[in-house]
Amino acid sequence: MTNNQKVKTLTYSAFMTAFIIILGFLPGIPIGFIPVSIILQNMGIMMAGGLLGPKYGTISVGAFLALALIGLPVLTGGNGGAASFLGPSGGYRIAWLFTPFLIGFFLKKLKITTSQNWFGELIIVLLFGVIFVDFVGAIWLSFQSNIPLLTSLISNLVFIPGDCIKAILTVVIVRRLRKQGGFELYFRK
C-alpha cells in the first residue's frame, strides 16, 4: 500500500466513523413494547462494510464503538458509556462490530462489488446487516430483559421493514460511491 493509499484509507475510515456518529443525531423512534428504538445508525454500519471492506470497515466501526464505550455521547439520543452495551440494545451494538467484516468479506469473496449483481449485494447486506444484527440483538434482549427468546425474536420482526429499506438505500448509495472511484482498493485480493 502506497502512502497515498494509506492517507486515503485513514481518511475514508475516519469519514465513515464520523458519518455513523452523525446518523446518531437523528432521534430514535421508540416502539413501546420492547425497550429498543428504531434508529438510523445501523445504516452506517452496513455502509462501512460495503465501502471499506472487511478490514477497514471493521476498524471504522470498532473506533465508533470504542468512542461509545469510553462514554462519548455518540450513540443515538446522545448515549454512550459501558452501560449502553449492557442494556437492552447491547446485543445489537456487539453485532455491529462483526457486521462490516461479514458484509465486506462476502462481497469480496463472491466478487460482487465488481459485477452488476445489485441483487446479490442486497442479499448479503440483508443477511448480515439486518438478519444477523436483529438475531444477535434478540438473543441479548431476551437474556438482558428476562423475556422468552421466542417473544424477543417475534418482537424484533418490527424492525425488519425499516431495516430492509435501510439495506436497499445502503446498496444504492454504496454502489454509487464505489462507481465514483477510490473504494475498489478495499476489495482487491
TrEMBL record:
Topology in the lipid bilayer: Multi-pass membrane protein
Transmembrane segments: 12-36, 56-78, 90-107, 119-141, 153-174
Any one cellular-component term (Gene Ontology): plasma membrane
Protein keywords: Cell membrane, Membrane, Transmembrane, Transmembrane helix, Transport
InterPro entries hit by this protein: BioY
Domain of life: Bacteria
Cellular location(s): Cell membrane
Keyword Ribosomal protein part of the UniProt annotation: no
GO molecular-function terms, A-Z: biotin transmembrane transporter activity
The keyword Membrane appears for this protein: yes
Gene3D superfamilies registered for this protein in UniProt: 1.10.1760.20
Primary location: membrane
Protein family according to the UniProt entry: Belongs to the BioY family.
Protein name per the record: Biotin transporter
The organism's taxonomic lineage, starting at the top: Bacteria, Bacillati, Bacillota, Bacilli, Lactobacillales
